[in-house]
User: Fold 2-hydroxy-3-oxopropionate reductase from Pararge aegeria.
Amino acid sequence: MSKNSFYLGSEIGNASKMNSVLQVVGGVSLAALAEGLALADRAGLSQADLLDVLALTPLASPHLILKGRAMIESSYSTHQPLTHMQKDLKLALGLGDALEQSLPLTATTNEIFKHAKRLGYANHDVAAVYIRARF
Assistant:
């Protein structure tokens, strides 16, 4: 139970829709972080320095910093399975289709997570999406 509750309207399913929206934001953010870390590494920049700088910007969030450290350390003990994130992205794409809402970033992110699953990381933490971004 949470100490907060929100009235999301009288329509059944609004909480599920809200969850889909939040998963889109989280999934796209994680994929972007993984890609940024891979680019930093390829450019000869310290990934740890990238996270330190990120922590000082308005882009910082405890979740991104935590997952970024997990990506750098190749520590994928499961908090949120990658396969669950990919499933949630797929559900969000279905919601977008039903509402005729274009979700190009979500579609691309879904493909990135699907590829990470094919690489054998389905049951690892979502931070394992970094493995896909490196190559």
About this structure: Residues 14-42 form the longest helix (29 residues). The two ends are 40 Å apart (CA to CA). The chain has one domain: 18-134.
